[in-house]
Amino acid sequence: MVGLKEELLKSIWHAFTALDLDRSGKVSKSQLKASEVLSHNLCTVLNVPHDPVALEEHFRDDDEGPVSNQGYMPYLNKFILEKVQGNFDKVEFNRMCWTLCAKKNLSKSPLLISDEDAFKVWVIFNFLSEDKYPLIIVPEEIEYLLKKLTEAMGAGWQQEQFDHYKIALNTSREGLSAWELIDLIGSGQFSKGMDQQTVSMAINEVFNELILDVLKQGYMLKKGHKRKNWTERWFVLKPNIISYYVSEDLKDKKGDIILDGNCCVEALPDKDGKKCLFLIKCLDKSFEISASDKKKKQEWIQAIQTTVTLLRAGSPPPHKEARQKRKELRQKLLAEQEELERQMKELQTANENKQKELETVRKQLEAAAARAAEEEKKRLQTQVELQDRFSLELEREKMVRQKMEEQVAQKSSELEQYLQRVRELEEMYKQLQEALEDEKQARQDEETVRKLQARLLEEESAKRAELEKWHLQQQQTIQMTEAEKQELENQRMIKEQALQVAMQQLEQLELERKEALEQYEEVKKKLETAANNTKSWKDKVAHHEGLIRLIEPGSKNPHLITNWGPAAFTEAELEQRQKSWKGKKATSE
């Protein structure tokens, strides 16, 4: 019953994780509703009575997720799975779970297998996957499944190709999910040269064996018990029963042969024109069957005998037993690998300890040798010191006397150099003051020129405004009637004369502006000369240990350049003058 619960949980896990749930910590209405719908469907297909109140009561407290200790899985175990008796259709149950999760997870890219084949691969994945979540199928089980499919297709197994795929898989992950396994089989990577029908038949055969526990199936003749006639039937051998149908579509079932440990099968001689006969003996009834050939006869006898032997021993079907053995072998190998890693770590730790001990011994030996060498060195040094003590003392006194004389001479020279440096710095200070005075005067001259240039520009702007006003008046005069033209002509002549006078004044202002610009250039050159002199003196002072602190002029504002040369006003003043000029122009218009 535990194995059945694990198989059911895998399919339910796929269905539950595919639901759109609110995982904010507390159970929301949408999550509760989705869980209730899933629970109702599960109870329907598993033939278990549904209790919606129990679900709401279970989720009354906070929830930590669908697979947590206080989530959906405890409710599933308590109220659904523990009530399952096994009297349900596994295919219908799996199809319901598949319907809930396939649309969300199935790849949108075209596959070489149908949706029905993808469903069967998904069910096979749940059978072969590991018992941990999220579910994956390990490379060993992938190899087992692909070998079964290749054998069912009648093709040769490409071990080298799978080894390359396994190496690439192991470098990135532990195994494949159900949807990755479907993509792998649907891509045709391991079924090249096979058509879709062949692949579908192979998937169906493996599905029947692993999921439906079909150990063998095929057409044979069965002798009737009443009319004693021979009729062809489709036989399906399972671990405890042989069912026979009208055809292989399994729609019209004609009967069952219940197998137990008391059953036996034996070959019969040919009779009544029938060949390849064998007899299945049960407690209450016997069945005579005729196979199509001797090979099929022997295969059926062997398969039935194997099934009866397993029933007597209470063993599971061969494929389930093989799966359990593979799982135990993997667990054993994993345990051996962990034990080997533990032993390696212990050996490594012991080796490191030994290395530390050897290093300690080596250091002790080196220290002992160093001490012995040091003692020998001290003994020799003591002898030398006793011999050279007096000579060293005399030599030391001579060196001290000579060093003192050198220090006295050096101090005298340094004093003389210091006095000379002070005199030089005083002279440099005087020259620096003169340079600063020159720079100050140059800045004053520059400011005077700037003011003059600003006044000229203001006058020039006023003249231009007046000229534009006169020009506008001339245009208005031209538009007057013919009767006023003569009088306006006289006024125009007068205004033209005034315009000429104004143009002459403008030219005079232009000449004055150029002269002011020349004066500004001369002042600028003087200022640059004074700045260079200041910088030269500053470098000299810094070179002589910075005994005098320089008084530097303030920073200059960036110059504005007009069409006639450098401007003597700032950018803000220029914008103000432009606004004033535009206002005058608008007023004149």
What is the strand and helix layout of this fold?
Blueprint: H1 2-17, H2 29-45, H3 52-58, H4 72-79, H5 90-105, H6 115-128, H7 139-153, H8 159-170, H9 178-186, H10 196-210, E1 216-223, E2 230-238, E3 241-245, E4 253-258, E5 264-268, E6 277-281, E7 286-290, H11 294-313, H12 318-478, H13 485-543, E8 561-562, E9 565-566, H14 571-588
Antiparallel strand pairs: 1-2, 1-7, 2-3, 3-4, 5-6, 6-7, 8-9
Helix pairs in contact: 1-5, 6-9, 6-10, 7-10, 12-13, 12-14
Keywords: Cell membrane, Cell projection, Coiled coil, Cytoplasm, DNA-binding, Membrane, Nucleus, Phosphoprotein
GO cellular component, one term: cytoplasm
Subcellular location: Cell membrane; Cell projection, Lamellipodium; Cytoplasm; Nucleus
Proportion in β-strands: 5-15%
Helix content: 55-70%
Give a count of the beta strands, DSSP E runs of length 2 or more: 9
Strand order in the sheet with the most strands = 4-3-2-1-7-6-5
Cα distance, first to last residue?
105 Å
